[in-house]
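Researcher: Can you fold this with protoporphyrin IX containing FE in place?
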Amino acid sequence: MTKAPSYPHDLFTDESLIDSTGHYRAMRALGPVVWSVAHEMYVLPRYADVRTALADAETFCSGKGVGLSPLFNEKAAGRNLLMTDGALHLKLRKLFAQDLTPRRLRRVQEQVDEQALRVADDVVRKRDIDAVADLARALPLTIVPDLIGWPEDGREHLLTWAGATFDLLGPMNARAQCAAPQAQEMFAFAAQTAEEGRMLPDSVGAAVVEAARRGEIEPDRASALLVGYLAPSLDTTISALGAAFWLFSQHPDQWQALRADPSLVPNAFNEVVRLSSPIRTFSRVTTRDVIIDGISVPEGARLMLHYAAANRDETQFPDPDAFDVRRPNAGEHLGFGFGPHGCAGQGLARMEAHALLEALISRVERWELHEATPNLNNIISGWASLAMTLHPAEGAAMQLVGTDTAAEGER
Ligand code: HEM
């Protein structure tokens, strides 16, 4: 048995956030478990170990928080779905899942498809666009708050609030400190909304507030649950969609492959999530002494389970930095997590992404990128803006000619 090798670098400086692939490669090469000197915790950077740990929630627990700073974990642990274990986690997950069942999602599907066509027509008409503001944000920002039941007022702050929550899940650096007041605003708004019973009827949020009224969950847990549903559902999908448009602008051959065979869309989206890993990492705490590939980790240790490093593991994904919409095992990525805490909203995220990509492949011939500005967030990777010109596909302009609502005709 050996001690974990040390890795000295800060993984959350601006430079690291902009491009971490070198850090990921170096950590994977060092060993199955690495001691991060900068963050004072272990890191699992390899695919097989991250997957095994995610599957074993009894040994690698979430109930002591999944963030990277002791201060945040102390406050948030045990409060929401993401940061609970065992029976309580199952109960909260059932409450959330009952409103995201395939049957419920089918009802949302129609709305998503219509919205995707409208958005695709709009951007083709505009041509010069910001692919983040005009495309990536368009669907999540209309679909998700409705589904969660977030009241109309306060929606204009959602992106800032959700981003702040993810910054706080990272280490307590300057970025997290700046985010604290905004995250607090979100909690205060959610608490007030839950207390006043203002969640939209027939929504996930309304179900939470009802469950609290019936005494099935503690009333003061309701607002934390609402934030726990909302925060992970916006930036994640927006980040993945932004990554898709950036990747397709850099790899026109992959866009043409998708246009030639639209049945590749689900695999292409998996490949985007694998390469971009919208959530870089969350952490776990060990509930007993464990040995991971010969390296001992004591009980009570905090480990980063590094989804992004695992998703670039060359032993799992040959030529891992290549973008290949036909990659045979793209669906094995850990970008949605895995095991008991695996993403509860991935059905919705996939639905939004597939609808948008399908609407765009018949309309867009080529993505010409002018300027890409990264969004520097501790946990969420992605773009703040992507200035582009869209080159319409032959026939796409025809779909728009003579009518302001070409999408109507198509429906
Ligand atoms: C591309 C988009 C998305 C990505 C990449 C993503 C990623 C993830 C990941 C990595 C986890 C695992 C957390 C862990 O291991 O502790 C997770 C959990 C979760 N996600 Fe997502 N997510 C996405 C979209 C969504 C959406 C749209 C929703 C809501 C409608 C959502 C709701 C949740 C919830 C509630 C959990 C906690 C599940 C639990 O702890 O049991 N996510 N997500």
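Model: Folded with protoporphyrin IX containing FE in place. Residues 54, 62, 66, 81-82, 93, 96, 144, 229, 232-233, 236-237, 240, 273, 278-279, 282, 307, 335-337, 341, 343-346, 348-349 surround protoporphyrin IX containing FE (CB under 6 Å).
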